[in-house]
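Q: what sequence does this backbone want?
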C-alpha cells in the first residue's frame, strides 16, 4: 500500500483548487499547477469540512474495514485525535 508524504488536508485542498482552475476539469487554465501551489492553503477549511463529513463511514465502507480505525485516522488528519 502506498502512503503519501503530503498531508491529506493539503491534498484535498489542492484537488479543490485544481478542479476549479484546470482545463482538465471545470476551469480554463491549461497549466493549473502554479495556481494550485499559490491558492491551496486558502482552501484548507473546505478540505477539513470534507474530512469531517467522512468521519462516519457509510455501510459499504464500514463493511470493507474497521470503522473504529477509520474514525481515528480521519480525526488524526483533522487534528481532533
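A:
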Amino acid at each position: 500500500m502506498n502512503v503519501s508524504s503530503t498531508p491529506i488536508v493539503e491534498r484535498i485542498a489542492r484537488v479543490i483548487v485544481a478542479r476549479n482552475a484546470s482545463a482538465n476539469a471545470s476551469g480554463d487554465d491549461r497549466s493549473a499547477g502554479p495556481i494550485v501551489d499559490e491558492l491551496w492553503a486558502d482552501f484548507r477549511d473546505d478540505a477539513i469540512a470534507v474530512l469531517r463529513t467522512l468521519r462516519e463511514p457509510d455501510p459499504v465502507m464500514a463493511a470493507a474495514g474497521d470503522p473504529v480505525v477509520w474514525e481515528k485516522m480521519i480525526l488524526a488528519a483533522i487534528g481532533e485525535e
